[in-house]
Amino acid sequence: MLSFFARRVGESLALILGVLVLVFFLVRLTGDPVGLMLPKEAPPEQRAAFAAEMGLDRPLPVQFAAYMTGVARGDFGESLRQRRPTLEIVAERLPATFELALAALAFALLVAVPLGLAGGMRPGTWVDVLARGVGLAGQTVPNFWLGMLFIVWFAVGLGWFPAFGRDDLSSIVLPAVALGFAGMGQLIRLTRSAVLEVRRSDFVRTAQAKGIAGTRVSLKHVLPNVAIPIVSVLGIQFTYLLGGSVYIEVVFAWPGLGTLLETAIRDTDFPLVQAITIFLSFFAISIHLLTDLAYGLIDPRLRAA
Amino acid sequence: MTRPTTPPDAGAPTAADAHAGEGLFSPRRLGRELLRSPAGLLGAALVLLVAAAAIFAPWVAPYAPSEADFLSARIPPAWNPEGSAAHLLGTDQLGQDLFSRIVYGARVSLLVGVFGVTLSLTIGVTLGLLAGYFGGRIDSVITAFTNLLLSVPYLVLVIVIATILGRSLVNVILLFGVTSSPVFIRVTRGQVLRLKQLAYVEAARGLGASSGRIIPRHLLPNLVGPLATLATFEMSAMIFYEAGLGFLGLSVPPEVPSWGNMLSLGRRFLTTEPWMAIFPGLAIAVTTLGINLVGDWLRDAIDPRAGEG
């Protein structure tokens, strides 16, 4: 038991270390990080001065050591444009992205579970056709395009919701639905196929034979058994939403990490790009770890794996 | 690739042999299966439509993709009262014909999808086979690399690398080929680990067959099914992500007509000329729908138990 936890924590720490190394080398991949961060017309003196200021003129191992000691002290560098610690900027934007991802996940679950359950319990009926159609749409429709359609229809056309920004509660509706749409599709398919499996079990047949009403069988006998696979993918879904929020935040000018990443890339503010990448990866790794640990607690068989 | 698993004379008929001497992947069997699946047929038709548009673009498109005509700028689609029959889907702010640009844009999407998947399939199968078949240290290294790439949120990884590499079609293909390979590595490795314990592989090894014979003769044919299904889904994902990169201004150069670039431009005119963004997005949705339908059908045709209804 303890060794399972220790092993998973150790693996996660190794992954975090790996991400730090990966990010360090990615920025230096072209061999000319100065050229990436300064405009093309920058004169050689400015390049040299910039390289010296950022420490990019030092040998690679020295740069790497400085980078790692900085990270160990919680120093992720300074933004080139805003001239303040990147950590501070990321921390300011994080709540908005979390809020959006959570709202998207809530939307996905609220639609997917009832629809997948209803469809799976009655395969071949109109509910099932609807569930499969919506599931396929979620898998197919690009979220950034859906976001733009929402703006055209519901914000500009009907005026029901604001098109941009993050003000009151109504401003989160369109971005959350657009972001959660793909996850909703996957969750519908997952729920439906899990229901199809469970509904053939003996205990479901017994319940039906005893004359228990269909709704009650679905909610009391099938749903609890379907909950396990659904819960197991929620962690993955959430990290997917954190990453996928980049497009949606840009479409709706949502002031989170996604729009921050877009601006940082446009400004070639690489220290900031680096910090955002590292933090989003940290979250992804931590969420995976927490899901696995929770799973190890619930199902002892998984600890051996 | 007509005959997976053991040759028919090796003993009792296997599941794959049940189809009157045809392999699981024989064109005839797959063709017959396709005719029985309306969704699969629709998917195949959509994919063929997009592929035909891409290949025959100069004959399909009424205008050259970059032919600007300022006198007919910002025309709405033909069915709009202010539209013009000369421009079916309307024009953009430079007076370029949207339908023609969408037809040419199919080229970028399909090139990225086809070559990106080919590259990641090549990397994935090679590394996955090495890891799964030989195990040991080489497995540890490959698995660590796979886990590392999968731990960075995919979109963020792609955006950062695209920024560093710069805008070109070759860079975009390389980017997707490499970053999508971990999925193929994982599936290949998992399959190889399972297959190499099966009796027929053990038997081949017991008879003195070398790795150079076991891998191509006994392992690779059994990888075709799972990998073909994965490849179709990955292709639609790549087309989606490429368009997204274009939307952020990080894919092919801005002068190239691509669906992502059109969306990126259309976004700026969203409230006044919404058709500039709606139609390229529709093209992406139709293409990914087609590929996904083919993928769903292929999965069910190869493994009838996977689909259920």
Give me the CATH fold name of chain B.
MetI-like fold
User: Residue-averaged pLDDT of chain B, rounded?
Assistant: 84
The quaternary structure here is heterodimer
Architecture of chain B in CATH? Orthogonal Bundle
What is the CATH class name of the domain at 86-266 in chain A? Answer: Mainly Alpha
* Strand residue content of chain B: under 5%
Number of domains of chain B: 1
Residues in helices of chain B, as a percent range:
55-70%
* Beta-strand proportion of chain A: under 5%
Largest interface: A-B, 52 and 42 residues
* CATH class group of chain B: Mainly Alpha
Radius of gyration of chain A: 24 Å
Model description:
The complex is a heterodimer of chains A (305) and B (309). Chain A has 305 residues and is mainly α. Chain A has a domain at 86-266: Orthogonal Bundle (MetI-like fold). Chain A has 13 helices and no strands. Chain A has helices spanning 2-27, 33-37, 44-54, 60-72, 86-121, 126-140, 143-157, 173-198, 202-209, 214-252, 257-266, 270-298, 301-304. In chain A, helix 6 (126-140) packs across helix 8 (173-198). The longest helix of chain B is centred in the middle third of the chain and has 37 residues, at 98-134. Chain B has 309 residues and is mainly α. Chain B starts with 26 loop residues before the first helix and ends with a helix. Chain B has a single domain, classed as MetI-like fold (Orthogonal Bundle). Chain B is elongated, with a radius of gyration of 23 Å. Chain B has 13 helices and no strands.
